[in-house]
Structure formats: C-alpha cells, structure tokens
Amino acid sequence: MTDSERARNDALRAQVDSMLETFEQQQREVADVRSRLAATTAEAWSSDNLVRVVSNVSGVPIEVHLEPEAFKRSTPEKLGRSMAEAAQAAARAAAELSEQAVAPIQNLAGELPDLSDLVPGAPSIKDLMRSMLPEPAEEPQAPPPPLDDEDEDEFYRNRTYLDEQPHRPY
Q1: Region (Disordered) spans which residues (predicted)?
Q2: Where are the beta strands (DSSP E) in the chain?
Q3: At 61, is the secondary structure helix, strand, or coil?
Q4: pLDDT score, position 170
Q5: Fewer CB within 10 Å, N- or C-terminus of the chain?
Q6: Which residues, including other chains, have CB under 8 Å from residue 147's CB and lie 6 or more apart?
Q7: Please, are residues 140 and 91 in contact by the beta-carbon 8 Å criterion?
Q8: 50 in helix, strand or coil?
Q9: Is 133:96 a contact under the CB 8 Å cutoff?
C-alpha cells in the first residue's frame, strides 16, 4: 500500500469513526426522546365543551371524560361527533408534540453525510434513524356536520333514540 493510499484510508477511517461516534450519540438521544415521548400526553376538548380526550403520543385515546350534563345537553349522535372531534384534536396535538421532540435529532442527522454515501454498499444510518423514530400520525378526517335543532327535536319527539338501540336481555 502506498503512502497516499494509506493516507486516504486513514482519512476515511477517521471519517467513519466520527460518524459512528455521532451515530452512537444520536442513539442515546433517540432513547431519551423515546422515553420522554412515552410519558407525553395531549389533551383536547370538543367545541361544545362536553368531551375531553387525552391521547398518547401516537394519538391513541387513553382517557375520555364526559361532562356530567353531556347527556342532558346533547343527543347520542352529537355526543358521538363531539367525542370524535376531541379525539382527533388530541391526536393532532400529540403529533405536534412528537414532531417537536424529534426535530432536533432529525436536523442533526440531516447535516451529516450518510455512511452509504462514503462507503458503497454500507447500510444507511439515516434510514436506521428514521426506523427508530415513531411514525407521524395520519391527518384525521373532519367530523360530520352536527344535527340542527329541528333534527334534534324530531329525534326526541319521535323517540327514535329508543329504536336505534338493539334489545339486550338482562
């Protein structure tokens, strides 16, 4: 091996060692972010203030709270829409918290050359980092429009809420 080949080899080895050191630091930071995210929750209320939903960082509801007057002030359909609205808002808030938590790590990873850029056939460290982070939450769909007052009155006047429930023997 010539001196120039040895020098290039040493320079490449130093670059790879630096990248591996940075990768190990990123792994520690990802573990820290993951543990913080595991304890993170997001909360949201429905627009009618009858339903509060708490979701985990993945947007999965972990608590649903109904105000005591919810059954007096709403129909089952409206209350269902309020639950969906609050759950979707909590999921969006959780996604924002997740993105904020992982942004510094993603920014740091984006500034470095990837191992596969330096060594042909080497695994991609950036792909590995992306696989370690949580997937972003999907954009929730908007709830259907609420019943108007006339529909609500008809609902109670004709007692259709009694017909919609399947009969269950006790």
Answers
A1: 111-170
A2: 41-45, 51-56, 61-66
A3: strand
A4: 42
A5: C
A6: 75, 77, 78, 155
A7: yes
A8: coil
A9: no
Q: Give the integer Cα–Cα distance in Å for 106 and 131.
A: 12
The dihedrals phi and psi of 127, each to the nearest 5 degrees, come to -65, -40
pLDDT of residue 51: 96
- Cα separations in angstroms, 14 against 11, 61, 105: 5, 47, 23
Q: How far lies 107's CA from each of 49, 102, 113, 115, 126, in Å? A: 38, 9, 12, 17, 11
Determine the pLDDT at residue 85.
96
Average pLDDT per block of 10 residues along the chain, 170 residues long: 86 83 79 84 95 93 94 90 95 90 72 69 70 57 57 60 53
What's the pLDDT score for residue 92? 94
Positive or negative CA dihedral for 87, 58, 136, 104?
positive
